[in-house]
Amino acid sequence: MEKGNWKMEKGAPESSVDRRQSPAHFPFSLFPFPVFFSVFICVHLWLIPPAQAQEVVVNLSAGRVIVCVAKKGIVIATVQKSLEAEARPPILAQLSGRRVTVLLGATEWISPAGEPPVRMEREIPRVSTAISGEGPTLSREQSEDLQAFALAVLEPLREAAQRLTQKVNLARDEPLLDIVLIGYLENYGAETWTMRYRAVQEPFRGEYWQTRVLRPISTQLYPPEKGDPRTIMEVRYPPQDDTPLLLDLLRRNDPRLARLRNIDKPTSEAALKILEGESHKAPLEGVVTLLRGALEATLEPGDVLAFGVIDEIRGFEWVIPQREVLERAEEERKERPAGAPTLRKPPE
User: Are strands 99-110 and 118-119 parallel, antiparallel or unpaired?
Assistant: First the structure.
């Protein structure tokens, strides 16, 4: 795979928008480099800033993001890899009815000093609304708007990362945070981008280091260049995840997936169009059935699946809510006094 789509060459500016499609074989991993940083922190970073003598805990969102653009909708699935008890799943944050982000990497920063934790899934909708009222346009013609969004996300991430004062072995292109941006643009159609946030460290004094988050590099994944296949896209964190790619399993007619292709006509048609590189012509209901069944059949012990759809008309809907959505709903239920009004069920 060509790595130049997003690689920062020496002397290049820190920020760029790459509108080229990584050729031609979806799904793929965006992280072909060794992940020294991910291995080092795994799930927690216990670091002591020199001035405040306080430790910061960084929780990682680890797993896979699977995206497939179908006819009249986009299917989005996440699979959490069970690294340790405190690992987070890939986090979906909704920007508007037809735009979402999925976050991987350093998504939660916790200080024991009593300060509220920095959770990037909360920061992203806030900065998005502040910029445009409903999130980035995701348009080739509106790349400046996309850059404004990416740079706005950079600010809370930089502030949180200032507490990283211990040396970590970051590879040159190792991401600190990855954001997958998925949605529909009015009068244009479906688009998907990734935004990679890298960090560099410089000596401060003694054993302490200054951590600086660089401007993000944005890459357009969908639509691909003319003539390239339109099929399943897969993004992984950390990159050493050796789980077989879903598209490869379909191509090999893996026995766990073979029966799914004959469930009904929409599912059979969806499988055919995906393998032909024309997923945008596949019926949405067939893609949902195929991908959900394929992922459920191939989950490893400890993996957790979440599944959603952006319907071209109705907008985003959960099919299998992510764990944190269910936990938040349960917390709200416990905190709500008996008889209190709720938006979930109108009062009788």
Answer: antiparallel
